[in-house]
Each structure stands twice: as C-alpha cells, then as structure tokens.
Write a structure and sequence with these properties.
By secondary structure, the protein is mostly helical. The protein is built from 4 helices and 2 strands, in the order αβαβαα.
Length: 98
C-alpha cells in the first residue's frame, strides 16, 4: 500500500466524522513486550498497540477495523435465558465469641 493511499484513507475516516476511538496507538517498528515495557506510560498500560509492520502483512486489517469501528471477530449470540443468581448473606463482623 502506498503512502498516498494510506494518508488518503486516514483523512477520509477523520473527515467523515467516523471516529470510534479517541486514541489509536500505533508503532512503526516491531513491538515486543520488552519494548512495550520501556516506552508505554503506565496510564496506557494494557492498551492495544497496532504494530504497523506486522499489520501490513494483513493489508492493515487491524488498523482499518479500528478506524471504521468494524469488529474483526463474529461472536455467537448470548443465551436468551440467564440463570437466576441467589444472593448469599454476609454476617456483620465482630470480635466477640459466638
């Protein structure tokens, strides 16, 4: 994919008002756990970082799915009926002998 096409696609997504996520973190170099632990601030720990070098092999599927808010995986439906959960009682705490 050429740089011009990537820039155009990104501009179209921003211009259309379709901005599903506030921030999409990307890396232009390969991402490893060691690199992540050194460069990612603690406030952003646990956030997904799109590795553009690896994503290029998939025609940037991960990046474009985030830009267009398109789910990559189809999950099956959740059961119609959920079980009724019974609540247990917790007795008040006391240091007195019972």
């Amino acid at each position: 994919m050429s740089e011009e096409l990537f820039s155009l696609s990104f501009s179209l997504e921003l211009g259309s008002g379709c901005f599903p996520c506030c921030l999409i973190f990307v890396s232009f170099s390969s991402v490893t756990q060691d690199v992540l632990s050194k460069i990612v601030p603690l406030d952003f720990a646990g956030r997904e970082i799109v590795d553009l070098k690896n994503d290029e092999n998939n025609a940037f599927q991960n990046l474009f799915s985030k830009l267009t808010d398109t789910k990559i995986y189809n999950f099956s439906e959740v059961a119609e009926n959920t079980p009724i959960l019974e609540k247990g009682e917790i007795k008040p705490f006391t240091l007195k002998d019972r």
